[in-house]
Design brief:
By secondary structure, the protein is of the alpha+beta class. It contains four helices and four strands, in the order ββααβααβ. It has one domain (about 5-105). A four-stranded antiparallel sheet has the order 2-1-3-4, with helices on both faces.
């Protein structure tokens, strides 16, 4: 049983978007069978462009895996309940795709 893969994007105001990434094997077999159309994929580069042109919001985009039972709603609930813990957890287990995260040494006036 494979894990689910997700991509999340948040900024200084909280979670902005979360999507489950389709399993590449399932997509390939669906295309080869020709019976069921694969779920259309979103374009992560659109998210990156949004982040790059809104640097004042300090966007972060991460890709990570979660156990099979975890859903998009579970991740949204996690961010709603404790956004800092959710961000720290995903930073620890995920792969960073993009980050404009501010560090303490970048802050001039606190």
């Amino acid at each position: 049983m494979k894990n689910n893969r997700f991509v999340v994007m948040w900024d200084c105001n909280g979670l902005e978007a979360v999507e489950q990434l389709p399993d590449p094997a399932e997509t390939t077999f669906a295309l080869l069978k020709g019976v069921e159309p694969p779920k259309p994929q979103f374009n992560i580069m659109h998210w990156r462009l949004r982040a790059q042109f809104n640097t004042q919001r300090n966007y972060e985009i991460y890709v990570f895996e979660a156990t099979k039972g975890i859903t998009v709603e579970d991740i949204r609930d996690m961010f709603e309940a404790s956004p800092q813990t959710a961000a720290d957890t995903i930073r620890g287990i995920g792969t960073q795709f993009y980050s404009d995260r501010r560090t303490e040494d970048q802050i001039v006036i606190r």
